[in-house]
Amino acid sequence: MYKEYAGMSYEEVIEKYSDYITRMCVVWTQNEEAAKDCFQNTFIKLYKSSKNFNDSEHLKAWLLKVARNECNDYHKSFWNRNVSVGLEKDRLEGMQNNSTNGLQLDNDTEILVKALRKISLKYREVLVLYYYQEYSTKEISDILQLSVNTVKSRLQRGREKLAKILEKQV
């Protein structure tokens, strides 16, 4: 049985959007292994879905929403909140901070990524969607199911928090 998703095969969708969804899952979970699980669950849901997509932007927005829900479920899970895997928190954070997912980052980018990791998810996600993914505030409000004004407020506050963190590092 061959399925198409906005005119693409399942394999083509994975090839086109895997990097995008992986990065977003890493941003939202702050845990590389959890991000892999959320990524995998997102594409399993796509495979099982019978949804028809109007175009590739509709598909991309759907994948993003499913990935975000998967990451939210990860944060709500009993295991995540209550089970220690035997690593001290400082050591675990150090491992996460040293992880660049196989990418070579220049010094400025690495400083920015570390600063972004220090602000709360609600600000980090709108900053990443706005600046990295280049979504408009209206598109972000649709994706995150927030009002446009809430998105604008979070962008402003996120910028301020990010600036304070960056000022301390310089």
UniProtKB/TrEMBL annotation:
InterPro entries tied to this protein: RNA_pol_sigma-70-like, RNA_pol_sigma-70_dom, RNA_pol_sigma70_r2, RNA_pol_sigma70_r4_t2, RNA_pol_sigma_r2, RNA_pol_sigma_r3/r4-like, WH-like_DNA-bd_sf
UniProt cross-references to SUPFAM superfamilies, sorted A to Z: Sigma2 domain of RNA polymerase sigma factors, Sigma3 and sigma4 domains of RNA polymerase sigma factors
Classification via NCBIfam families: sigma70-ECF
RNA polymerase sigma-70 region domain sequence ranges: 14-77
UniProt organism field: Eubacterium ventriosum
Acyltransferase keyword on record: no
Residues forming coiled coils: none
Gene Ontology molecular function: DNA binding; sigma factor activity
Gene Ontology terms: biological process: DNA-templated transcription initiation
The name this protein goes by in its record: RNA polymerase sigma factor
Annotated RNA polymerase sigma factor 70 region 4 type domain residues: 110-162
Transcription listed as a keyword: yes
Keywords per UniProt: Sigma factor, Transcription, Transcription regulation
Protein family membership: Belongs to the sigma-70 factor family. ECF subfamily.
